[in-house]
Amino acid sequence: MHVAGFAMLLALYRLLKGPTVPDRILALDTLFVAAIAQLVLFGMHLGTAVYFEAALVIAMLGFVSTVVLSKYVMRRDIVE
What we know:
Helix content: over 70%
Structural class: mainly alpha
């Protein structure tokens, strides 16, 4: 769990200090992946399925937000 927490700190640093917008989008996606890893590990530690469901919701939100942000950066328009 410490490695996933360290990955979250590094991704947060890149999100705040990233030189370009694509770097920040990748850092946000990495932050989502590390949060999913934290939740899955914590769910395995406690032996409950609630954290797995929360990780699934975060995965869906992370995917959609990455796609929307990338599309906005590429075209400056979200809706076609």
